[in-house]
């Protein structure tokens, strides 16, 4: 039995969205292979959604500037390599916090 996609979307939007995502990932894998577009290392497709080493669909040109949400504007990256999230991982934040602290410390030493 094949159900009407618009009814599925209405009755179970999460399922519809998950299926759309899985289908898009499969299309992108066929086009680009299994490597992350940013770090070129293989993406693991057996992990739960949202995992750092799992796939994330990334927009090549950010949607904020009016780019279309089509496959031509999308690629696959690791969750951790995703452009939007790249500067916000705990690792990067920690590194930035330390360098800020070191900078402040150096400045206060200079003033003293
Ligand atoms: Zn990556």
Task: List descriptors.
two-stranded antiparallel sheet; elongated; mainly alpha; 112 residues; binds zinc ion; 2 strands; 2 domains; 9% strand
Sum this structure up briefly.
This protein has 112 residues and is mainly alpha-helical.
Question: Can you describe what's shown?
Answer:
The protein is mainly alpha-helical and 112 residues long. 47% of the residues lie in helices and 9% in strands. Strands 1-2 form a two-stranded antiparallel sheet. The radius of gyration is 20 Å and the shape is elongated. The model has no long low-confidence stretch (mean pLDDT 82). The site of zinc ion has 7 residues, from strand 2.
Q: How would you spell out the order of helices and strands?
A: HHEEHH
Number of H- or I-type helical stretches: 4
Poorly predicted residue ranges: none
How many strands, which pairing sense, and closed or not: the largest β-sheet? Answer: 2 strands, antiparallel
Report strand order across the widest sheet: 1-2
Estimate the mean pLDDT confidence.
82
How many strands appear in the DSSP assignment? 2
Helix content: 40-55%
Radius of gyration, in angstroms, nearest whole number = 20 Å
Structural class: mainly alpha
- Percent of residues in beta strands? 5-15%
Bound molecules: zinc ion
What is the overall silhouette?
A: elongated
Distance between the termini: 78 Å
Task: Tell me the number of structural domains.
Answer: 2
């Amino acid at each position: 039995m094949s159900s009407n996609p618009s009814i599925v979307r209405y009755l179970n939007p999460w399922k519809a969205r998950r299926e759309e995502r899985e289908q898009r990932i499969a299309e992108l894998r066929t086009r680009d292979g299994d490597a992350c577009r940013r770090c070129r290392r293989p993406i693991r497709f057996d992990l739960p959604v949202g995992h750092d080493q799992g796939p994330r669909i990334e927009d090549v040109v950010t949607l904020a500037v009016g780019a279309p949400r089509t496959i031509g504007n999308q690629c696959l990256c690791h969750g951790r390599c995703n452009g939007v999230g790249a500067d916000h991982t705990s690792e990067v934040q920690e590194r930035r916090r330390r360098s800020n602290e070191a900078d402040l410390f150096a400045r206060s030493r200079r003033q003293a």
